[in-house]
């Protein structure tokens, strides 16, 4: 197998941020306009002026409101590890809940909960032990460690920038490129204005364009040729070495059972294939799914929530007949118009995606088959359902040299952020790779047996064994040798028949579980030839279509897509989460601390609990406006105000977060409206159409 | 700190199965009767004859229906690691969902999602690096490893059994004791009939009674004295050595940042205390919660789902003022009558729990305070809500020598199974232990500042510093030294004042972040004495009440409590899950494959989806009875049959799993009844009161 490194696309979605690198030149950072209407999706016509996106302000809000925090903060933190605080955790739980309903329940998938601890053998077989690595190089004096491709990229960019300064050019491209690394600790601390010769500039530009494709040796050669060392001290660096990105541990007390923390949830699903097929009454196609944490020991993670060492994934493995990748529900998505940045477009050096329906994409062979296209559609619908901005979404096809070792095709669902385009969902065709390697390793048949409607006559290799000769020669290994011969695939039998024809014997070291290292089977022991056969059962190893979601990345993008500031006061920030995923749905605000209001507050609480709508009470002494501002930052879509009029007629006020519009009605009416808007997809106008507009309270 | 081992009660719930050991003599295995009515809680009067519980039959069902399977099965499996298949996974998700609603939402807790990877420093401080261990001993010849306490126990039990045989006694007690180890691979393969002298018999009985309390050295002495070696080969064993139960790994590429997989979720909550308090607007008391996986590298896990290396926990840390442990909602649980196996009862050698209300338990000081008691009540209500049999539940208080190093009191919620009483929930008072140690280690104040209603005059140690002298002597360390002095607690100031009085100086190595290793503060630099002070703010470190749930263990117990066989045919097993937690709520069964039935099936599907009720369709050609039998095993509470009459009037049949009773009504009526029974707590009779009884189809 070809050696392909993690950093050059081993895994279909988590080798972040490839797209930042590919397209950063074309991405205009921080200038997209934020329209409330588009995000809130409560359906209000709030066409306030858009404000400029400010990442620092968003991040400070997220930390201040404890959406997340560096893990082990009081111990100084560990890079790449983050905790989710209450609102972040609730948002995640709601998104996972929507995911489960959208995929597992609606598509009748078989959800599993498999272990994270994984023994060495499994990941050796899957290819991860050998290939799941990045290149690192070490400063032998200081002990500092760099990720080789990142270092080369940054140093060369700095030199190009220095060159432009020396040439007196306006530093356009470099400035843009830099934006993407705002959150990385810079390795290159200062830019020196040194003019390069034209030849070098060209070479550097080529290197940058190809940076994701280099092997460790190539990176080492570049570092040597251009004298790239530790950018701060100037020390030379060790040659790039492979660093496997899996966390290793020992299982059990003996220290002999080596294990890893899973780098993806997929393997646990493949290993259970037989049981899943049986559970599904042997029916094909079907899908399994896992929602859970995976782990990658990044060399030096530095992009906040986008590149972490422990992260939540949701992965689907859809097992399908390789000869029939039609999907019975394709018609439900075929008219969705989406953006496709296909391989061809990219190879032509373009960045403008094709706009077309999924149906057209399949027809034009841009997306290979209906099943793959069906999942692209479902992925899109899921993201829109949780509030991702459709205008900042596209599908990008992997380049041939970018794909993981197991993939035959792969589309990434990418979301546009201030960091550039971020791959958040991968949708790969893993072909029969994984089932084949595990089956070969364990000797378990991981395949489907399909009874044919009509028997078929085929010409197939057949292996005839002269059993009497086996016993005397192979003795107690005899059954194993026989079994080995009988379990060869058609392709293998073809090879063996050639070997027999050439050498009049078969020599193999592949038979496991026997004493002899090498077995020699004489030509007169066995006859392999093509024969006509009537076949009643077709046996095949399914292909696997794998939609794989990085939940943490989706959450970060959702933060960016939902964030805006009130134009009248840019210090007042809002997170316009859709009610369906908002951490809390309702804030209960008694107008004052007056005890008389309490019974109504309790009554509203009671009724909200009855219909299971998550809410919070804020009975602090802060002004109504302040209390709402706090909750706008938390993304709470609705506010219920209890005032002294509520005592008269049990009426309360409902406030909508994005527009700050208010309506008034009975407790029951108001809660009914919240429920219909939150869980049953009604728009605001629809939900409150029977309620009176209210302009009693000011927010100040 | 005293050295206390994991196996002697370090952690409040996962040192399984202590209770099996304590009470196995008193537990009569496999004789409890299973009453359908008690478990189903759909409220049907199904007083069919109880059948005997058969663990083998249950386990075979659980594996066959893929509730769970050994992880990496096709690779031979890894002990202590299991995957949950679709029904097990759905059951777990539903239980977690109920847990989240019952605790996080109803109690307004602050849920976090914290990382599993945990750096060494944190777990060193918490005490886990030093104390979270079991004793193991190794056969130096074969390499085999034994858990010391288990080995001693088993060998001594075998010898006592041999003695009884030699004495011609009926082997009563031993037979019972053995039941508990049915699932352990036996270390002692054969029992030799050797008579022991009376003295030894007595000594052995004492050892068995104390087996959980021995240190490694004591276990070693016992092994030496009674010549306990490898029971199969007779080889001598190495002395017991500590084996830390945490999985170790390295974070980052340098290999210098040692880390562990968390053994509990609690630490991540403690470390976030300050942020949580701020998020809660500085209000006390409050609780945080985490639902997630934890890991323990058991020496040789052998009790199926009850002792595993990777498991789902749900933990609450309730932070409370140590001077006020009243709970405002205690009245809501105070009349619950529960079983308490208190410390006193156990010390008196009894096993009959006290029966009383939570109110009485607090009054009589059996449960120490209202907050602890409140959570005991909530734990009980949660378990009943998900279908645990109240008759097989009790709370058992930890013995003084059994508690974890951080706990000042602990009650276990124990569930009775065929393995004995299993601790499934721990409810510990962790006092201020964790916040104190982390605060001391990091220098961060993890405390609450409470503005007093009225200023208080107190006599307190005060530290007066002659600042002019500090600068010249300590130079740039001066601020750190000053800060250190000023941040001492009252107890520490008392110590320092004594030191000053004795030595006229303070010598310390405790000041972190300065150049000098040791600092000497002369007596004339500082004055520490008691002074009257007016205090406006009270500062305190909260105590922590920790309800901690082992979700996997609860699930196993729920399997046992829900399992029974139809008396008319004991091969027909049923899992009587409550509809609320059942993996699938409804099975759709078209009477035949006739295409005419399809539109009605689709219509039912559509309506079920609309109200988000999880269902499955079984349109296989098996008989109706077979299809229902399959789903009884999966615990699906309802079946909807579509027959040819459905074509006439769109009516369908609803079947209840436990009673197999059937009623008939329109699709809308039937789905309404399912919804009310599943999610709104209605009993069957109530839910279907407007529907006609139906006796059309037989199940055979």
TrEMBL record, chains A, B:
GO terms for cellular component: mitochondrion. Its EC number is 6.1.1.14. Residues 236-579 form the Aminoacyl-transfer RNA synthetases class-II family profile domain. PROSITE patterns: AA_TRNA_LIGASE_II. The keyword Cytoplasm applies. Keywords: Aminoacyl-tRNA synthetase, ATP-binding, Cytoplasm, Ligase, Nucleotide-binding, Protein biosynthesis, Transferase. Homodimer. This is glycine--tRNA ligase. It comes from Dekkera bruxellensis. The lineage of its organism: Eukaryota, Fungi, Dikarya, Ascomycota, Saccharomycotina.
């Amino acid at each position: 197998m070809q050696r392909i490194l993690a950093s050059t696309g081993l895994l279909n979605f988590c080798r972040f941020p490839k797209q930042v690198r590919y397209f950063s030149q074309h991405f205009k950072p921080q200038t997209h306009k934020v329209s409330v209407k588009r995000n809130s999706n409560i359906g209000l016509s709030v066409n306030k002026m858009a404000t400029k996106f400010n990442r620092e302000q968003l991040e400070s809000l997220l930390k201040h409101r404890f959406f997340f925090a560096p893990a082990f903060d009081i111990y100084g933190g560990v890079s790449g590890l983050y905790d989710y605080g209450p609102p972040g955790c609730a948002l995640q739980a709601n998104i996972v809940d929507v995911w489960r309903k959208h995929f597992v329940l609606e598509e009748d998938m078989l959800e599993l909960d498999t272990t994270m601890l994984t023994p060495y053998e499994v990941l050796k077989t899957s290819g991860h032990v050998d290939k799941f690595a990045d290149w690192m190089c070490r400063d032998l004096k200081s002990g500092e460690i760099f990720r080789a491709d990142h270092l080369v990229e940054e140093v060369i960019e700095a030199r190009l920038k220095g060159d432009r300064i020396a040439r007196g050019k306006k530093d356009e491209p470099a400035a843009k490129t830099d934006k993407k690394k705002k959150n990385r600790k810079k390795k290159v601390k200062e830019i020196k204005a040194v003019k390069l010769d034209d030849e070098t500039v060209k070479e550097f530009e080529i290197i940058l364009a190809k940076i994701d494709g280099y092997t460790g040796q190539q990176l080492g050669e570049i570092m040597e040729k251009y004298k790239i060392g530790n950018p701060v001290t100037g020390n030379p660096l060790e040659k790039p070495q492979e660093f496997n990105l899996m966390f290793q541990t020992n299982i059990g007390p003996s220290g002999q059972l080596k294990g890893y923390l899973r780098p993806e949830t997929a393997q646990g699903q493949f290993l259970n294939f037989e049981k899943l097929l049986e559970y599904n009454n042997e029916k094909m196609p079907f899908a399994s799914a896992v929602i859970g944490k995976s782990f990658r020991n990044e060399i030096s993670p530095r992009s906040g929530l986008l590149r972490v060492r422990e992260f939540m994934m949701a992965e689907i493995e859809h097992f399908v007949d390789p000869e029939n990748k039609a999907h019975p529900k394709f018609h439900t998505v075929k008219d969705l118009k989406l953006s496709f940045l296909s391989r061809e477009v990219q190879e032509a050096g373009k960045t403008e995606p094709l706009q077309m329906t999924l149906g057209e994409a399949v027809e034009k062979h841009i997306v290979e088959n209906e099943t793959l296209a069906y999942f692209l559609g479902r992925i899109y619908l899921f993201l829109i359902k949780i509030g991702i901005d459709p205008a900042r979404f596209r599908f990008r096809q992997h380049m041939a040299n970018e794909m993981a070792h197991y993939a035959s095709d792969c589309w990434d669902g990418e979301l546009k952020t201030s960091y550039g385009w971020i791959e958040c969902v991968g949708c790969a065709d893993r072909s029969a790779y994984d089932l084949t390697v595990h089956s070969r390793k364990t000797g378990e048949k991981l395949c489907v047996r399909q009874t044919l409607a009509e028997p078929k006559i085929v010409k197939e290799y057949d292996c005839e064994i002269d059993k009497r000769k086996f016993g005397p020669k192979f003795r107690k290994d005899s059954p194993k040798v026989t079994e080995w011969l009988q379990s060869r695939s058609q392709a293998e039998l073809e090879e063996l028949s050639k070997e027999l024809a050439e050498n009049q014997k078969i020599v193999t070291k592949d038979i496991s579980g026997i004493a002899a290292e090498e077995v020699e089977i004489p030509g007169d022991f066995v006859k392999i030839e093509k024969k006509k056969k009537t076949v009643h059962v077709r046996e095949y190893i399914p292909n696997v279509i794998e939609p794989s979601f990085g939940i943490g990345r989706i959450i970060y993008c959702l933060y960016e897509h939902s964030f805006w500031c009130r134009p009248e006061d840019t210090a007042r920030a809002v997170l316009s989460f859709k009610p369906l995923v908002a951490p809390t749905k309702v804030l209960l605000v008694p107008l004052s601390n007056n005890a008389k209001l309490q019974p109504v507050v309790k009554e509203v609480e009671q009724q909200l609990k009855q219909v299971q709508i998550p809410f919070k009470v804020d009975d602090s002494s802060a002004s109504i406006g302040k209390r709402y501002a706090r909750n706008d930052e938390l993304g709470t879509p609705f506010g219920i105000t209890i005032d002294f009029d509520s005592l008269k007629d049990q009426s309360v006020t409902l406030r909508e977060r994005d527009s700050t519009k208010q309506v008034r009605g009975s407790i029951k009416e108001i809660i009914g409206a919240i429920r219909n808007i939150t869980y049953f997809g009604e728009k605001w106008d629809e939900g409150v159409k029977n309620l009176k507009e209210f302009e009693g309270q000011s927010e100040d």
